Every structure is written in structure tokens, then in C-alpha cells.
Amino acid sequence: MSSRGKLMLQMVKEMSEETTECEPHSENNIKPKSQVFSLEPLQQENNNVTTSSIDSSHQNILVYSVAPLFEDDSEECNNAAKIISDSLDNQHDMHNVAGPSRGSYFYQHDDHEVELADDDSDDSSLIGESSGSEYEPSELENEENEPEDEQENEPDGEQENEQQIAHCNDTDCGVPKTNTNLTSRGTKRIKTFPVKEKTSRRRIRKPDTWKRRSAAIKRERGESYISYKNQSVPAKTFCSECLCNERCRLKCSTKFDLDSRKLIFEGFYKLDINAKNALLFRSITPLPIVRQRKNAIKHKTSSYKYSMILNNQQVFVCKSAFCALYQISRKKVDIIKEKLKTGSSVPSKDRRGIHTNRPHKINDDVEQAIMTHIKKFPSEESHYSRESNPHKRYLAPNLNMSLMYRLYIEECREQNMPGCFLVKKSTYSRIFSTKFNLSFSHPKSDTCSKCDAGNSNAEHEENVQLGFQLMSRDRERALKDEKVCYITVDLQQTMPLPKITTSKAFYLRQIWFYNLGIHVITTAGHKSVMQTWTEDIAGRGSTEVVSSLWNFVQTCENVKDKEQLVVWSDSCAGQNKNFQMICFFQLLILKGVFKVIDHKFPEVGHTYLDSDRDFGRIEKVLRKQSNIYTPDQYRQLIKTACTRNSTVNAMESYFRDAESLPNKMGLIHKKKNVLNEKVPFRDGIKWIRVVEFGSYLYKESYEYVPFKKVSLFKNNSPPANYVPPTDIEFPRIGHKRGNISEKKIANIREQMPFILEEHRGFYENIIGIQEEPKPKKARRTK
């Protein structure tokens, strides 16, 4: 070994010894409720020296030191230099971590993070990702082919001191480590969306923000503005010089000091244009002519007196002083005098830009007829954004503006209406956009409200990119690792039954056909699983999603013998991001189906999942099919669209009682984690991980930060001598959960003549079941 390599190796060993001094070496040094984090499985290869100790009673991994030994003389300098550079950088990178006391920090060295607990941290419990008693990280995270760590049993410590584990490595996170600034409590700002009072489809006009209108408003206020010729006009100021000629008989300049002039000027320009005209109209008084000049070319027909109020007294001034005090032109005064000549007692309202000469204006009867026709089409409120946009409603997905306009013209011709009702498509579209807040197809969070409004910030754009990188890394990992299964879950846009081209059907309601798409990626390749049902069978809530996932886990061969399940879905709280889904993951862990379950959510508004590609192929086939009468026809078309390794299942008899899972397993929904911090379940969580029964871990970002833990037991720990239940039943639901309104049943009955005879049995069965009298509940007897 060269002298340079020996010197660098000695520096690495000294640095490792300094790290060892900062960490506990005996079980006596382990403090109550202190947490130790290891961000990668500890290596134990032939060329590595690792000192570690494991507390089996509390599942703590204590990392002492990691010092690689170099054997190859050609690479020793490069490897040693890299380790020294990383170590020096990490020694100065001390992150204040949310959770423990103020004296508790992370110390990062050689891709390991170790918490150094201060002596005063007697009640700190920094929570990260728990590995569980049966799950070893190295069994799953084998991208670098690292063997398991040696474990040594330590004597049982104090049982009342709860110890937690945190485990998260680079391959888990899927993104490079970045420095994250955490607050003192590790909380994140909750996203709030204001309620929109938008009652029309088109953008609301804001004339005050228009360039020429804004200039006119500033001109009224006497402020500086930019004219339409792009010239800067200075602001008006009160007259501080002589108000009129020195030979003026009224001596106007001596009547007003500077304060009075300023007060009159500012009061005048606080008024709007109509109030200004009223003030000028009252301040000018017409008088009869006293004398006339004999040799005048044109005799004047009237005379005027100008006055204003000063200190509650009427003061008369000349015309020049009158214009100078108010900073108006002589032409403005002449216009007011012309109004006075007409004998009017009040000035007319300002009507600049307003006229009634509109030869092409649509009559009110025509506009009302168009609005009545639009109201005939059934609409429903938003499923995703009813709170933030309560006025938004959605038409059927098979409608569009051209089709609605064509139906309106046909209706006018059938009723022999006058020619004025046969308006252009642009007129129909304008009324549709200004009088209604309607959209086509069903609401779906495919666009981002922040990006559409131009309010996206750097953090939002960074989260979008990190989410895409993490999803891509999970996808590639599932193709290489035999123990990992990657799936995306999403509900397709609802499809109508029956789907017919009769014009009358567009004004009536149809039954919805639901399709939950599950796209699976494993070492065996890609596979699409479609779980389908109709509206009369069940709804589209969390129970239906959980039942579809359970059926998928039980029947799909690609999931067998997998140890880790990675799920990507949108953040819809009514379907995917809820407590029933957490309990379902607890059931899978309890029954040993998986050892680790990761549920990840893309940034809101950027949920581009693999299932969307499957839905695109399906919709392309459905657009070419004019009439569809039964669910089996939909399933056959879906099978035709997804030709490569796909399965289409009918879920009529496979829905499960997911609502009873929390009571059967003895779990409760906690609003706070074990650190007594509020859990931002709906808006803040980006990543949920389940590795042991009775708790789950979560993150609020995709970055390299520790997990936080939420216990699902009452007192954050199971009761004494608690044995997890292993014989939990997940029974099927014996009755239909769907509910069709009476109006929709009436509309289905009207469409029966347009349905082929061989397909009417499906709808007759639905109508008969819905019309059966429901059994009344028995009254209580005392």
C-alpha cells in the first residue's frame, strides 16, 4: 500500500473512532425512550468492519461504526477520499428533528443516521419506520445484495420504556437525499382551498382590471395613469398659485388659503363621476341677462354665477377660479351649463360607453328557450370538489356542445318555432357558458388547480417531480425484484347503461357502470385487472375499493409469494385514503399475505397512473360503439381493448363487509401520532407504510425524512398479554348496497322502448327490485 493510501486510511479510522465515542457501547448507556435510527441494513461483508448491537426486547438497532477496509491499492485512494468527503459533510449536517426534546438530533455518517439524545430528553420518542419482529429490511431491500445483520440478544430492559425503530434507505425512498428544513414540531402547513362562488362556466368578467378601464378609474380619481396611446399622464394637484386674473372683481385668490384649496380639491376627487356632476350642477346658478352689448356679433342668452361651500358659507367665485379649484376644464363647465339650459333639475347619469342601439340582440324569449332546453339535460354535483365549488355540476360524458346545439335546432323545427329561435351555435354556446356552471363528463382530479390558476410554487413543482421519480423507481424495482409487487388503483370514468343514440335518451338518466382498474407490475411483466359492477349492485366508496383489492389479492397469480406490496393511487378520501384502507392493510399483515405494504399518493392534480393508460385504450374502443345495453357487453369491450394479459371480473357476489374490520381487530382511528402531534391524514400524508399489526407509519413528503408512527390501540400500546387475533373473518355482503333514485327508475322505464327485446330483462329486474316494498323496522316495546 502506498504512503498516500495509508495516510488516508488512518484518517478514516480516526473518524470512525470519533463516531464511536458519540454512540452508546453498552446497554447501560441506553436511555429510556431514546430512539436510534438506521437508514440502511448494516453491511457485514469480508471487507467491512461493523460494530452493532440489537436490543431484542424493544427492537432497537444501535449503530456504532462502519469503517471499510481497502485491499485494492489502485482504488484505495478514490474510495478513501469519497468516504472522507462524505463523512466531513455529514458531520456538519445536524438536522433538528421533530419529536424528541430540543437536545435530540440526528447524526448522519456513512449513510447511517443515529440519534444523539441529550441528558434532558427524558420523555422523547422519535418515531420512524418500525421494522417489526418478523420483518428484516435486508430481506426486501436487496438491490445491493446485502446480507442480513448479525443480531445479539440483549437482556430485557425496563418494560415500561417504549422503544421504536426507524428504518428507511435510499432504495426505499427512491429519490436522492435532500436537506429538508423542518419546523420545531415537524408539522407542515395544511393546504386549504377557498370556496369558489363561481356560478358560470366562463370566467367572470372583471372590468376594473382592464387596461383602459383602469386608466379611466385613475383619471376620475385624479391619479397618474398610462393613456391608450401609451403616454404617461401626471396626477392632478390642487392650485397653489393665483386662481384668476388680478383684475378680477371678486378677488377669488384672497378668499381661499392653501389648506382650503387642498380640502376642496381632495373632497372633489373622492367622488365618482355622477357625484361630481351633481356637485357642479348645484354650484352653477343661471341668471337673467342684465345688459347686452350693442355691437356684439352674437348676444349671449344667459348668465351664470359660480359658488362653493367654504366653512359652511356660500362663497361666489369667477369661472376661472371655479375651474382652478376643482382642476377641471372650461369645456366641462360649458357642458354643465348646456344641461341647465334645458331646464333639468338634476344632471343625467353618465352614459359614456352605454347605448341601446343593438340590432343583433337576442330576444329574452329566445334566451329563455335556450336556457329551458339546457335545463332538460340531467346533471349531478361534483363528487370530488363539492365543498370548494358547490355550484359546479356535470352533464353526462356522452354529451358535448355540438350535440346539444343540434338537438336544440331539431326541437325548434319539430315545434315549428319562428326563425328567430334558430340561433347560431356561438349564441347557444355563449348562453351555456355565461348562464350555467356546467361541464361535461364526471369530475376527476386530472388537472391541478394550482397549475391551472398559475399559483404553483417551487415546493409544489418539486413534489411533482419527486413523485414521478419515486413512481418510476418503484416500477423499475418491481420488474427486477421477485419479492416486490407494484400496483396502481383508480376508478375509471363512469359509463352509462343503456348507451343508445336516440335523442330522447340524452334528456334522461341512465344507470352507471363502474370499473376499478388495477395495473400490476412484477417480474412476470404487466397485467391489467378490471373489477366491474353496476350502480344497482354497489356504490363507489371505500368498501367497494377494499373488496375489489381483496378479490384481486386472492385471485391474481402475480401477487403470490410476494413480500412487499407497493400501492399508488389518488388521494380521494372517500375511496382510497381512509381508515378502512388502513384496516385492510392491517388484515393483510396479520394474515401474513405481505410483510410490508407501502401506499403512496402522487401530488394532487398530477395523478398520472399506469391505470390511466388502460382507461385510454378502453375509451378509444367505446367511442366506436354506438349502442351498449348490458354490463356483459361493457366487459367484452374492455377485454377487447386490453388485449395484453388482462382480466375482467364481475364483482356482483364478492363485496365484503369492510366496515366491521375495525371492531373485529380492536383498532381505533387515532387523530394524533405517538408524539401527540396531529396527523394531517387527508391533506398532508404522501406515504403510508404498514409493517406490523396495530400501527402504521407515515410521511408528509417524498424526501429522505424519517417516518412518524401512529398507534391504532387505545393507549398507544396493546393491553397486557395481548394476542393478535388470527381467525378474523372477512365475510361477504349478502345484500345489494346500491341505491337508485326514483327519478332514475322513472327515466329507465321511459327508455325501455328503445332497448332491444333480448336485453330488457336486465332492466326489468332492476325496476322490479327497486319497487319492492322495503320491510319496516319493528318498533321498540317498553
TrEMBL record:
Task: Report biased composition (Acidic residues) as residue ranges.
Answer: 136-161
Composition bias, Low complexity: 124-135
Region of interest (Disordered), ranges:
12-31, 117-162
Q: Which residues form a coiled coil?
A: none
Ranges where the DUF7869 domain occurs: 529-672
InterPro entries for the chain = DUF7869
- Which Pfam families does the UniProt record give? DUF7869
Q: What is this protein called?
A: DUF7869 domain-containing protein
Q: What is the lineage of its organism?
A: Eukaryota, Metazoa, Ecdysozoa, Arthropoda, Hexapoda
